[in-house]
Amino acid sequence: MTWIPLAVVAVVFVLATVAVTVSRSRNQRCPTCGVGYEVVSAAGQGVNGSYDVLACPHCSNTATVVRGARSFLPYCPSCGNRTLETPTVRLPGETVRVEVREHCPLCHFERTFTVGDLQEPVKLGKVLAFPRKRAPKPDDANRESGS
Q1: What are the φ/ψ torsions at residue 52 (nearest 5 degrees)?
Q2: What is the pLDDT of residue 112?
Q3: Is 92 part of any domain?
Q4: What is the mean pLDDT of residues 19-47?
Q5: Using CA atoms, how far apart are residues 33 and 56, in angstroms rounded to an integer?
Q6: What is the pLDDT, as a whole number, of residue 43?
Q7: Are 24 and 65 in contact (CB under 8 A)?
Q8: Is residue 139 part of a domain?
Q9: What is the pLDDT of residues 76-132, one digit of tens each?
Q10: Residue 96, C-beta contacts closer than 8 angstroms, at least 6 positions apart
Q11: Is residue 32 part of a domain?
Q12: Does 40 have pLDDT greater than 60?
């Protein structure tokens, strides 16, 4: 009889996992066409630091997504709160370009930029090299001597 509550918990967990997966895949589909969005600019590449910019390949719909969900607001680069509004507009033309207007109602931060097919590729973050010859800290010297 003790396995019945355990089985109920397992079924609820599986159903919740399926519901979250289905809702996230729906968030990344165009509501008009039903086609999957294309990533125009991934988070951390370019100006948009904490959210992805998506666009439909067939119509003018665009969206911003934070960690796979459209309902959460990204962090404001000025005040650091999760209050940044990011309305987007697809620009006309053959290439996929999206204009993003960032606005924070808390600190009144505003910025407008364009992402999409640019001439030069977006560079990923730089890797910092560690210094090769590092002087030991005074605590490290005491540990090595055995005191």
Answers
A1: -95, 145
A2: 92
A3: yes
A4: 72
A5: 8
A6: 81
A7: no
A8: no
A9: 888 988 889 999 999 988 888 899 999 999 999 999 999 887 444 444 455 556 666
A10: 38, 40, 55, 57, 90, 116, 117
A11: yes
A12: yes
Residue 101, beta-bridge partner list: 112
Selection from 130, 73, 142 nearest residue 103 by Cα = 73
Helices vs. strands in the chain: H and E counts, helices first: 2, 6
Distance CA 27, CA 139 (A): 52
Q: Which pLDDT score, from 0 to 100, does residue 121 have?
A: 44
Number of domains observed in the structure of the chain: 1
The residue among 98, 86, 94 whose CA lies nearest residue 61 is 98
Would you state the pLDDT for residue 71?
57
Cα angle 63, 118, 123 (rounded to 5 degrees) comes to 90
Q: Three-state SS for 135?
A: coil
Domain membership of residue 13 as a residue range? 3-120
Does 69 have pLDDT greater than 80?
no
CB–CB of 100/64 below 8 Å?
yes
Look at residue 27 and tell me if it is in a domain. Answer: yes
**Model pTM greater than 0.70?**
no
Cα–Cα nearest to 46, from 112, 123, 111, 99: 123
> Which tokens go with 28?
């990344």
